[in-house]
Description:
Layout: H1 2-22, H2 31-49, H3 61-70, H4 72-101, H5 107-135, H6 143-179, H7 184-198, H8 212-231
Helix pairs in contact: 2-4, 2-8, 3-6, 4-5, 4-6, 5-6, 6-7, 6-8, 7-8
Amino acid sequence: MSSRAERRTKRLRKLAESWAAAEPRNPGALGGPLAGVSFVAGVTGALALADAPYPRPGAEPADVRRYFGGNPGAARVSVVGQLISAASLARFTATVAKLAGRSGRGARGLRAAAVAGGGLAAASLATSALLSTALTGSRGEQEESAAALHRLMFAAGGPVHGAGFGMLVGALGLAGLRTGELPRSLAIAGLASGAAGLLSPLYFVWDSAAWFIPAGRFPGLLVSGIAGARLGRR
């Protein structure tokens, strides 16, 4: 009986070890992939549901009212995606900060940059989402308030978010390069997309700098997703 009990105990131990190996060792790192998936899903879902083009920066107030007033459901799909993405970024920031803390010389400053950038990125994206929600209500029905809300929404979710996200992804790339915990090509891609994001605020003085926003955001989301998946297994 004792021999049979020992064999059963060994089998249970092996089963528990296999389950532990299959589970992510750092669940917070999965905020990286989730941030990108939720943001893209929200944007694509809104575009699929809307029957009017999304108003670009500087759009006429009538176009802003037409989109948000005529497509509140589509706008709220995007809002949900942004809020999930913001929460995921906040969680992923802790993982990047820990990685930065292992980066050796200058780790304290790099960790502070990751926390500041991630906090700004999450807060500005959430602010942009809340302003989008306001545009689907009564304040979006008046041209003056709709135009003002739309400008604030773009500023928060565009250049400001781009700067914070760029700082976070840049810190991720540099920390991954120093520690060797990320492939060199992925770390360098993080540095490049982070630099583009940090240049996003140039839009406030130079309209053509608007291309820095997507140039930093979408490659940065891809880098964060891949890095998060890798760090989640460490």
